[in-house]
Amino acid sequence: MMIQISAGQGPAECQLAVAKLFEALKKEYGDIEMLSGKRGCERGCFDSICFQTEQDLSGLEGTVLWICKSPFRRNHKRKNWYVDVSIIPQQNKIASDRDYRMETFHCGGNGGQNVNKVETGVRIIHIPTGIAAQSTEERSQYQNRRRAMDKLQKKLYDLQQAEKEKQTHAAWREHNRIVRGNPVRIYEGEKFIRTFSADRGC
């Protein structure tokens, strides 16, 4: 599962809450691994952190509230700082050597005496996606197989890039969305002590 903690458009205090929440979750769930982090405007702060875990943390999705006096602005009256926790869709895994099916067929048109006698045309289908590519340009089945595979790999690469772009857009969309109210967890004080939890990690 891939998860993002984000300060959204929040100030440095929210960015500090992102870092503190990540550290708290690492202690709570041992297998958490950071994938990426965008540093905030103050030392030790993060605008967003993306991490992965084998645990089911879907109950953590939502808003987390940190109640604390600002450690950066001494006379600031605000004490409630919100961060967003979002599940990021996993990128689909696309290519594997065993996921292809190859078909051969007779070619028509120009190509010499082998045209209608030998199945030189090649079609390769990527089974998980149904994407296919074929080649009839070459005179030998081997050459057509190589050409068809090159075409197919290009199609799969384009699909993979589209998946990455979709994942990036999902992360950016969630980064800008913070719903205040009804937090799934509440932490308090500079020691970041959890005082309320509505998720299954309580």
Please specify the SSE layout and strand pairing.
Blueprint: E1 2-6, H1 12-28, E2 33-39, E3 46-52, E4 62-67, E5 80-88, E6 100-105, E7 121-126, E8 131-135, H2 141-175, E9 185-188, E10 193-197
Parallel strand pairs: 4-9
Antiparallel strand pairs: 1-3, 1-5, 2-3, 4-5, 6-7, 7-8, 9-10
Describe what you observe in this structure.
Mean pLDDT is 83; it is low at 111-115. This protein has a seven-stranded mixed β-sheet. A three-stranded antiparallel β-sheet has the order 6-7-8. It is elongated and about 85 Å long. The longest helix is centred in the last third of the chain and has 35 residues, at 141-175. The two termini are 19 Å apart. It has two helices and ten strands, in the order E-H-E-E-E-E-E-E-E-H-E-E. It folds into two domains: 2-91 and 177-197, Alpha-Beta Plaits, CATH 3.30.70.1660; 97-163, Double Stranded RNA Binding Domain, CATH 3.30.160. With 202 residues, it is of the alpha+beta class.
CATH fold field value of the largest domain? Alpha-Beta Plaits
* CATH C-level class of the largest domain: Alpha Beta
What is the number of strand segments? 10
Total helices: the number is 2
Distance between the termini: 19 Å
**What's the alpha carbon Rg, rounded to whole Å?**
26 Å
Approximate helicity band: 25-40%
Strand % is: 25-35%
Summarize the biggest pleated sheet.
Answer: 7 strands, mixed
Structural class category: alpha+beta
Catalogue the unreliable spans: 111-115
Reading the helices and strands in chain order gives: EHEEEEEEEHEE
Strand order of the largest sheet: 2-3-1-5-4-9-10
Number of domain units:
2
